[in-house]
Amino acid sequence: MLKNFKNVEKTVFGRGGFDQLGAIVDERRSENDCFTVFLVDNYFEDKPLGQRIPSKPDDMLLFVDIQAHEPTTEQVDTIRDSILKKGLPSCIAGIGGGSVLDICKAVSLMVTNEGSSSLYQGLNLIKKPGVYAIGVPTIAGTGAEVSMTAVLTGPEKKLGLKCEWTVLNQILLDPDLIANVPTNQWFYTGMDCYIHCIESEKGIFNNAYSTAFGDQALRLCREIFLEENAGQTFENDEKLMVASLMGGSSLTYSEVGVCHALSYGLSYVFEYRHGFANCIAFNQLGDYYPEGVREFKDMVNRFQIDLPQNLSADWSDEEVSRMAEISIRLEHMWHHAFGENWKEKINIETIKGLFRRM
Amino acid sequence: MLKNFKNVEKTVFGRGGFDQLGAIVDERRSENDCFTVFLVDNYFEDKPLGQRIPSKPDDMLLFVDIQAHEPTTEQVDTIRDSILKKGLPSCIAGIGGGSVLDICKAVSLMVTNEGSSSLYQGLNLIKKPGVYAIGVPTIAGTGAEVSMTAVLTGPEKKLGLKCEWTVLNQILLDPDLIANVPTNQWFYTGMDCYIHCIESEKGIFNNAYSTAFGDQALRLCREIFLEENAGQTFENDEKLMVASLMGGSSLTYSEVGVCHALSYGLSYVFEYRHGFANCIAFNQLGDYYPEGVREFKDMVNRFQIDLPQNLSADWSDEEVSRMAEISIRLEHMWHHAFGENWKEKINIETIKGLFRRM
């Protein structure tokens, strides 16, 4: 049985596209209780973008804090409860990075599905479609704009809500919005794309579709982060938005692998942001992805990126064990990376060993 | 104002995917008058695929003749009328090449929009959404599986029905279905992808999105039609399906150019099939697309493809004039290829001159 995957319904791509958000939102205003929710990364609260949100007096403009940790089920539930006090929105627009897009996707489902979002972490557990969800990335690389998953950290696990209704209805990709991302952040998030393309290709679920999208995303990443014209340029901002989209699409049929499985453990226990955690982990995975890791190190050097090492010197055995337990539960990732008999190659001790390298 | 483009809603990709068509159709069976229409290229009527159509006793299984000419508005109207005698279908599945997919898209709209389809040739003339439309390509390259257009030849022009409802709701890309396409046909249709990617990139509407998709489609075309492992192989059938999809996507923001404008004239006057007409035209366009045409000729030689030349020796002045008149009306293509002031570079005489080279 092959996947029948749901695409984003509508896409705007191009500079200045953000100015079309108001009109897109207005098309929905007659639905449900006729108000729009804007979920915006609070980083923009005092930035020019924060002043450009096309909210009307009856709308809800919520600035979301995603600096402290990855999105949590508790955070999603709290936002959902505050929205439902006002009613059922006509649509929800998320403006921010992968975290805000995932919160937007999750909240749009949770306004129509009862109970805590932690009840729905997994595949096809959601019972009803959500309200219309719009994603506007302000940093690129995660692929959250096209993915079927809203990754949340819950009381027991870090795992996505995943069903065909999780996919955003509309995305608006405006390269102007990613022009001033701080360099480290630009790099960590861009590497999410690079790393998941490497993982996508090096595993058993990879097929011609994933390869075509993943290869092109990798090629774009090399232009942006490694080759002669690398850097945060006008052209590269555009390329990075497309690379993120294509990298996300490469996962439609394939899977992430070793790095993401470890990264989820790091984020769960130490609340590291996803892109940063990926970079910490990938840096030590030369045994599994030799060319990818070599190239990654070249890119780190090219931009003199801060990438801490020897972190594990300060980690307790208990912390390493907790990370390994979170990590080993991500069976679909290990299965993809090592095949059906992955348990013969990977166990909790191998995983602890990988964390101790970091 | 940037385009807000509609994507195909759902995609199945992979070998054996055709076996999922029955289940996909069944999900819709309670809609409208509860029957499915299968529009199938009549080439398959006595082939194994013709026996695998999952039609039930109450469905309509229509074998469509697309050998004689490109899809016409008359053909679409006739099929529509025959369907409406039975009622409004729950969905329409088109199984065939670009012609059948375009007929499927057009018929799905015309069962809900009154009058002849020739009334709707153009942009956003359609008034109402159609019924659910499913496309199953049996040959790859046209990009019809993802495009917003259903190209039809009408009494006055060859022009697409184009609106966001024209996009297929579901596509099913099974590389097994394109395994036995005759070599010439495989080549002509594959070249539709190659040529529209070249045209997409060489024009003013091209952007980072079009380039990323077009470049990767071109790279795949070179692997399939030119390089060491070129040919109709297991791997290349998969790559060609993805190339077609990506080539079609590269046109979302960009446009076709000189070759397609001329090709429409050839098909209108001589009823040449689209892929063949493109090849006849592109072969003479070295002045406009020098590298592309050089590489195209290498591909023609690699597979010893039948490509007639000196056709124009048998064309009357009146035929050349009619082709040029059809061609020059495709202003968006000339605009893309030569910029806003294209009329300073191209006129009816230049176009006639191009036809006389063929």
Write the layout of secondary structure elements.
2 copies of one chain form a homodimer.
Chain A: E1 4-6, E2 10-13, H1 21-26, E3 36-41, H2 48-51, E4 60-64, H3 73-84, E5 91-96, H4 98-110, E6 122-123, E7 132-137, E8 149-153, E9 158-162, E10 170-173, H5 183-201, H6 208-225, H7 234-250, H8 258-270, H9 274-282, H10 290-302, H11 317-328, H12 331-338, H13 342-345, H14 348-357
Parallel strand pairs in A: 2-10, 3-4, 3-5, 5-7, 6-9, 7-10
Antiparallel strand pairs in A: 8-9
Helix pairs in contact in A: 3-4, 5-6, 5-7, 5-9, 6-7, 8-9, 8-11, 11-14
Describe what you observe in this structure.
- Two copies of one chain form a homodimer.
- By secondary structure, the first copy, chain A, is of the alpha/beta class.
- Chain A folds into two domains: 10-178, Rossmann fold; 183-356, Up-down Bundle (Dehydroquinate synthase-like, alpha domain).
- The first copy, chain A, has 14 helices and ten strands.
- The first copy, chain A, has helices spanning 21-26, 48-51, 73-84, 98-110, 183-201, 208-225, 234-250, 258-270, 274-282, 290-302, 317-328, 331-338, 342-345, 348-357; strands at 4-6, 10-13, 36-41, 60-64, 91-96, 122-123, 132-137, 149-153, 158-162, 170-173.
- In chain A, the strands form two sheets. In chain A, strands 2-10-7-5-3-4 form a six-stranded parallel sheet, covered by helices on one side. Chain A has a three-stranded mixed sheet with strand order 6-9-8.
- In chain A, strand 8 (149-153) and strand 9 (158-162) form a beta hairpin.
- In chain A, helix 5 crosses helix 9, helix 8 packs across helix 11 and helix 11 (317-328) crosses helix 14 (348-357).
- Chain A starts with a strand and ends with a helix.
- The mean pLDDT of chain A is 96.
- The interface between A and B is large, with 37 and 38 residues.
